């Protein structure tokens, strides 16, 4: 299967205010970067999804929070797709790009677990991508008023597991270290 790595919304907004940082952020970034290294070594295309929302000062184009996180191992040849909704497929060129590259398996990481990641994982399945992988400990969210971030993550992983994605530990990616 030809794969692509899709990293969703790892943007500066989640790192500018220590009260609003993604849960387990240092481990998440370390693991995402390990998989980026694996993808480069294996010539797997890397796609960064960037949330853009004019009505949200944190994610408005050109604002400091809108930028992709500076700690990611991003390179000029990596594809960047801007989206304006929680679904990275909706009104973007993601489906067309994946088709042009003959991609049939998606590997996911990113934020926020219960919003853009969840919506895009389910949308990918609806778009015919039925053998996808989610990298365990390479996605995160913020605490909500109802649940703590680890509970949100655990709940979503239990829903997704072997339905929408296979959840795979970063250690199982050869050459990721």
Topology, element by element:
Elements: E1 3-8, H1 25-41, E2 46-51, E3 79-83, H2 94-100, E4 105-111, H3 113-126, E5 133-140, H4 149-160, E6 166-169
Parallel strand pairs: 1-2, 1-4, 2-3, 4-5, 5-6
Helix pairs in contact: 3-4
Would you summarize the structure shown here?
The model has no long low-confidence stretch (mean pLDDT 95). It contains four helices and six strands, in the order E-H-E-E-H-E-H-E-H-E.
Radius of gyration: 15 Å
CATH topology: Rossmann fold
List low-pLDDT spans: none
Strand content: 15-25%
Class computed from helices, strands and strand pairing: alpha/beta
If you average the pLDDT, what whole number results? 95
| Order of H and E elements | EHEEHEHEHE
Could you estimate the helical fraction of the residues in percent? 25-40%
Write down the overall geometry: globular
Q: CATH homologous superfamily name?
A: Isochorismatase-like
Instruction: Please report the first level of CATH classification, the CATH class.
Output: Alpha Beta
Biggest β-sheet description? 6 strands, parallel
């Amino acid at each position: 299967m030809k794969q692509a790595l899709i990293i969703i919304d790892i943007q500066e907004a989640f790192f500018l205010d220590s009260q609003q940082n993604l849960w387990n952020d240092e481990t998440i970034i370390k693991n995402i970067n390990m998989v980026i290294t694996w993808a480069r070594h294996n010539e797997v295309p890397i796609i960064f999804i960037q949330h853009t929302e004019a009505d949200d000062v944190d994610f408005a184009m050109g604002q400091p929070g809108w930028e992709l996180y500076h700690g990611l191992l991003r390179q000029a040849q990596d594809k960047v797709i801007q989206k304006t909704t929680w679904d990275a497929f909706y009104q973007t060129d993601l489906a067309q790009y994946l088709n042009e590259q003959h991609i049939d398996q998606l590997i996911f990481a990113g934020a926020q677990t219960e919003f853009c990641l969840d919506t895009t994982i389910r949308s990918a399945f609806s778009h015919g991508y039925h053998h996808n992988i989610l990298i365990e400990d390479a996605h995160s969210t913020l605490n909500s008023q109802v649940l703590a971030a680890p509970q949100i993550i655990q709940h979503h992983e239990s829903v997704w597991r072997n339905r929408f994605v296979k959840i795979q530990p970063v250690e199982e990616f050869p050459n990721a270290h």
